[in-house]
Each structure stands twice: as C-alpha cells, then as structure tokens.
Amino acid sequence: MAKKYAELSIYAPKITSEDYKRTFDMLTKKHIPLLEAIDLSRAFSFRGVEFVIKRYNNTIKMFIKDKDNIYGQSALMFPFRINDPAPLELSKSKFSLGTKVVGGTNFFNFLIKENVEEIRIRVIKFFGIYYGFGNFVDYGGRRGMLALTNPMKFLEIDLENNPLFYIELLDPIPKAVYLESPNPVLVSDSARIGVNNFDVFQHGIIVGTSGSGKSKFIQILIKAVLQKYKDVRIVVVDPHGEFAKYFPDAKIIDFRNNYVEPFDVGTGKSPLITQLVAQLITSTIAQESKYAERVVFYSVHLLADINDLNLENINLLLTDSSKRMEFTAMSQNDEVKRFFDKEFQDIYMHHFNDAILPVTNFIGEYMLYLGKAKHLEDLGKIVQNERLTIVSFNPHFFGRRIIKFFAGAIVNQMYMMAISEKLKMQTMLIVDEFPTVETKVVKDILAETRKFNLYTYAAAQYLGQLSKEVLDALISNARNIFAFRVTKEDARLLSSMMDIKVEEFFKRSVSPSELDASKREMFVKLHTRECIARLYDGKKYIIPMITRTVDTQDWINVDLGIKHDPYTGEKTYFKGRGPLE
C-alpha cells in the first residue's frame, strides 16, 4: 500500500533558505514530556522531515510525508500550504548509481544535470545544523544515494531564474476572522457564518455567473432569515420561476392563476405615482424616443388625474379619438388638455411609428397574457400577512418584456409601501436576475428605503449589465456583498469595493499592481459554492473572506415558522419578536 504524502503548494515564485529553515524548525520542534521547557530539537532531530520532489516533464510537484497531523499545521507553514494527505506512488528503481554529495546548488540544476525524475530526502538536525540524506531516481529507473550539506539551499525556489520548470502558484490568502454560528449559511476554515453574525437588514448584492452557487445560497439565506426572525417579511421577485418549487408553503403570485394590478401604487394624485408608472412603461417598451416618453407621461398623468389609470384606458386614449376627447374633458389640468388638443395630433401624424405604435403593441401583448379572468391580489395585504411571498414567472410562458413590466410593477409597489410607511415589519426584497427587471426607481429604493424597513438584495449574473446610475447606487448603498465566481470585468469592480486584506508575506514579495491583479483573480477562480463575502455587522465591515455555502441539505428540514391548520389547511404564523426557538 502506498504511503501517504501531503502535496506542498507554494504562494510565491521565490522561496528562500530562511523560509525553509523556519518551516523545518516548526516541524521538528519536540518537547520532553513533563519537561516542556526542555527542547532538544534545537540541537538534534533524527526523525526529521521527509520530502519528495517529483518531476513530470517540466512540471514540478513537492510532497511531504504525513505524520503528527501535519495537515492540521498548514496555517502555520506560510508561504507553504499543506494539502490533504493522499497515497503517493513512488518511482520504481534499482540501485545502479553512486552517491552524490551536493552543497551549494539547487534542485533545479540537479534535475537537469542528472536527468532526475524523483528525489526523496529526509532532513534532520545534528548539533543545530540541518543535513539531508536520501536518494534520487533518474528517467532510466536507476537510483543513487544523495547527501545534502545545505538542504535549505538545495530546496530554494526561484521560478524567475528557472523558466524551464513550472510550479503552480496559489493565489494570495485573504486574512480571515473567527466567527461562530449555530446555524451557518457560509463556512471557511476559521468561520461558521450565520445571519446572527452580520446585519442582514441592509441592502445587499448577490452576484455570480451561472452554476456558481448563487441561487442555492439565496435559498439558504431565505430559510436562515425566516428561522432567526419572527417578525420579518421576505418578497422574492423570481423572473426565472426557480424558487417557488423550493418553498411550497410560501405565498405564490404567478400572474397566471393570480395577479397584482400593475398600477396599484397608492391612492391620490401624487406626481411621484405618475413618474413611477410612466418610467415603468417607457423602460419596458425600451423605446428611446422623446416623443414616446412625452406621450406616455401625459397619458399617465391624465388618467391618474381622473382616477381611471390602467393600460386598457391608455390604449383607448391613444387610439380612439372620441374616448380621448371624453378623458380630456374630465381633466382639470390645462397643460394636459393643451398637450392632447395640439401637440399630440402632431406626434400622431408624424411620429406614430416610434411614439404611439410601441406603446399600443405592448398593451396588446399585455392583454394577451391577462385576457382571461384571474384572481386579483392586494400586494399590501399579502406582505402584511405572509412571511414569504414569491412573485414567480414562467419564462416559457411569458415574454421577457412582460416579465420586466410585471416585476417592475412589484418593485414600484414595494417602494411606495415603504415611503408611505406601510411596512410595519422589517422587509427584505430579493430581486433575482436583477438586470432583467431593472427600473430607474431602484436607485431611489437603495437611497431612501432603509429607514422605512425595506432592504433590497439585488442578485445578478453580471453587474456590468446594469445601467451606470443603478450600478452607482448599488455601489454606494449595498453593505452586504456575496460574490461568487464572476467575470473579469465584474471582478475588477468588486475588488475595488472590497478592502481585501492579505498576509503580509504577499505585500513584501510582489508589487502593488501584481497584488491588485491577484485580488481580482480571486473572484474569477472561485469554485462552485465558494464566495467572497463582505459583511456589515451593524457598526463596521467585517473583513472580506473566502467562504463556501453550506450544503442545502443542512437546511432542508428547517421550520420556517409557517404552519397549516390541520382542519382548514390555512396558514398560521408565529407572533411576537425575537428568534425562533
């Protein structure tokens, strides 16, 4: 059976004699039982440390024999990292070479000169001086004895001066802090992070390309928040229809069996309501025409003024002259009357294709989807009564434009509920595929709603798809960031947002520009379920750490505080404040 060796990885292209001496001292340090003050290893260490260097063409790998839980000491061996011990097949050979005594050269030169495939050495200490003894195997399967008078010098690594060989370098190590949670959502070697370790009631960003683990993390985060807090409400806008199947007890709005009136953004004739509705329509039709914007703005303003605002009436206003006269006559606003009496006629005659037609086409598409009777829901009452609400869209049924419109309407209504102080409990708004449903009102939500109990988490595959003004608002207001594997463009942005601390060794061994590049590479090279988390604890930022999500199975049987009456089937909820027991 093959012996177990731990692969020895390195973090820098240059490893000095001092680095090796420090490592040898740590690995050979032994005390006499009951006499802890006596350390004979300062002078003698005959067990020593066993190294294996294997050459695969131009690639070099180094291994250290597993003993005394050497893997558990990995954190102490910087700039090396000890990987999990595993069986290692050593080269088969027979003794047919003599003994080589090596003093001042390094193993790179020795590999070339002797055509060596494998080196095995044991480093021991004798009267305070390290020596190395072992053997080497060449590519012909012949073995010879090897004696090292200066093993630290022999093992030195300088990849810049040895371009013929390749040794894989590890990325810089971000510093980490110890955190502990009984119900973690993220874990690392030094931390078990749960929602009790950071202030979840802040705006946040969850970003990661497809397959990075972002969606699984959102599931876990939702469950963790519902478990920890009784008086909390979560609304998920789900453009891909992904989350409803994971939360069968949640309130589902799917716009096929039930729906929310898109323009139900509050009562009254507030200019803000007019602005929100007009922006929603123009952003949905994506028609960059000043005439289209004016037509939509005045149409919304007129119908809101007479308390008859809906898409069907906008369609009538734009296409039916008698209805247009009727609606205009009901308005008390002289500017609105002027627009439809004079300016609208000119736009209708000369700019119909880019000002009127896109709006009526969209309304026709809307009526196609909502033509059949559906159950009308009141979003305000739902948020008041339901702990978890998922607004779910089937992308195989709805077109992208309709999804953008309905999702934007939900975001608008959440904003109006917040600023009108109707959200009595802390409410999280999680918007998946955020660029798909982005609206201009988001920047106002991020800037204003934290003090009104609304906290938005924007989830996206690519931050670069967002408009500059919305992206700037996210950068300024998002305090909790969960960055899974991303593109190089997003890595550059995220790296600038996070003050990633690295071990001092890297600051000494690389230039500032190289260090910045290494930090950006961290985001690109993350494995599935790994994320760099920058969290806010309510007073300060916790230093960003590389973590990984826990297994979803860890949260599969968690009680979310939603109960069903065994007789009526109706849902009931925990009352009161504080974490669930």
Largest sheet: 11 strands, mixed
Determine the structural class based on helices, strands and strand pairing.
Answer: alpha/beta
Query: How far apart, in Å, are the first and last alpha carbons?
Result: 50 Å
Q: What is the total tally of β strands? A: 26
Helix content: 25-40%
Shape: elongated
> Which second-level CATH architecture of the largest domain applies?
3-Layer(aba) Sandwich
How large is the count of helical segments?
A: 18
Arithmetic mean of pLDDT: 87
Q: Which strand order spans the largest sheet, edge to edge or round the barrel? A: 13-12-24-23-22-14-21-20-15-19-16
CATH class identity of the largest domain: Alpha Beta
What would you give as the CATH superfamily of the largest domain?
A: P-loop containing nucleotide triphosphate hydrolases
Radius of gyration: 33 Å
Uncertain stretches: 31-36, 564-569, 573-581
CATH topology heading of the largest domain: Rossmann fold
Per DSSP, what share of the residues sits in E-state strands of 2 or more residues?
Answer: 15-25%
The total domain count is 3
Could you characterize the architecture of this molecule?
By secondary structure, this protein is an alpha/beta fold. The chain has three domains: 4-161, no CATH class; 200-257 and 378-525, 3-Layer(aba) Sandwich (Rossmann fold); 271-369, no CATH class. 35% of the residues lie in helices and 24% in strands. The protein is built from 18 helices and 26 strands. It has an eleven-stranded mixed β-sheet with strand order 13-12-24-23-22-14-21-20-15-19-16, sandwiched between helices. Strands 1, 3, 4, 5, 6, 7, 8, 9 and 10 form a nine-stranded mixed β-sheet that branches. A two-stranded antiparallel ribbon has the order 2-11. The longest helix has 20 residues, at 400-419. The protein is elongated, with a radius of gyration of 33 Å. The two termini are 50 Å apart.
